[in-house]
Amino acid sequence: MKYVTTFSTEIFSLLNSIIYFHKAIQELQRVHDDLSFATFLYTIIGAFGTAGLAILLSTAESWKPLFPRYFRMFLTEYAAAISIVLFIGLSHLGELSTLDQSTLQVSPYFRPSNPGRATFIVAFWSLPKLWVLVATVPGLIITVLFFFDHEVSSIICTIDRYGTKKPAGFAWDIALLGATTAICGVLGIPPANGLLPQAPLHSESLMHREINYNAVNADIGQRTESQAVSCVYEQRWSAFLHSGAIIIFVAPPMQRLLGLTPTSVLAGLFFFMGEQSLSTKAAPAFPLVIVALVPARLLLMNRVWDCETLRFVDTWACR
Questions:
Q1: By the 8 A CB rule, do 41 and 298 touch?
Q2: Choice between 213 and 266, residue whose per-residue pLDDT is larger
Q3: Is pLDDT at 176 greater than 90 in this prediction?
Q4: What is the pLDDT of residue 198?
Q5: How far, in Å, CA of 158 to CA of 139, rounded?
């Protein structure tokens, strides 16, 4: 992965944003097709309200002197969670609770959702050998996808602007990802890896400024200069607590709580994640500029320079 350039990470970040936006629009379209028009209108309000409030709260750290510093930090770091909880509660108040809203599908029992399975363990030893061989093809594709997803997202989360001091644990992280994916296969559940195993949002929430003091030589001797630098709190506790919370919400009582979540809030979260994936990059518009230059070269430059000149420039640029 040492050959992965900044341009590759920019393109990868743009791809993630497009996927988030596409999933959100897909959910809105599904509600439009399956549910009433009133529910569709509220779904739009809930989705853009969730995303808009989360985006607004994510800028709370710049609201000085409106609130104390630690309160502003709390609003910034938990912007998405606050917005989600608020709009989940809002959807169950008053006449809104009478709408035929679409909510997350959950299971009230701790057992496989497939009625044909009584246990979580898949009897893989009884599968036909031919199908085991056929399954290696999508298995290899998923392996490559997970490897690239994980490595590139790790690079994005440890770029220079975050000022990380400890090297990223690429080998250990990918080993853990492989182990959890194998366990999920034996249990017959989808792989535990999401779209981004490591998210730039996590690095952004851990960012802070430190004062570095450096001794410099001057005419009258040495003097100390201070410089504010941006860096992140490098720890594993937040990721561990997130994983623990996921395990807790797998339990049936907590799954019932998740079942109260309207899919409009989920769509809003996708909009927020897509926007943040773009805004946290140093040059989020750079890939779009590259794409826009293609029609500019084909349609505009032909009117300014002759074909010989453009052919010479193209040959030089593509050598």
A1: no
A2: 266
A3: no
A4: 63
A5: 29
